[in-house]
């Protein structure tokens, strides 16, 4: 009886560890938030890259805030921008923007709350918070 009890306790411990190790699946909000940050960072990297085509400087600005209703129009305009189609990095960025737009209007439509509709706020880069001395 003792070896069976040890096996049972080992199985329970293993299952408990597996449950603790697994994380919650991403929510619509967390997915949209992480993808918007990824797109904004990729856009910044693209703008500062020396090795990219000069047309990249003419791309519409892409600073995203998923809490701003204007983000939908910003994403549509960026994806529809006709120039730079020969630049691989731009096409990849447009594909990510298209995915974010689709997630926002289809999958997360009821889960998101837009806190503002200030389109001008999406024209400037989002600065990281500064530390107070």
UniProtKB/TrEMBL annotation:
Keywords: Signal
Membrane-crossing residue ranges in chain numbering: none
InterPro entries for the chain: CYTL1 (IPR029253)
Gene Ontology biological process terms, A to Z: positive regulation of transcription by RNA polymerase II
Protein name: CYTL1 protein
Cleavable signal peptide: 1-23
A Pfam family this chain is assigned to: CYTL1
Superkingdom in the source lineage: Eukaryota
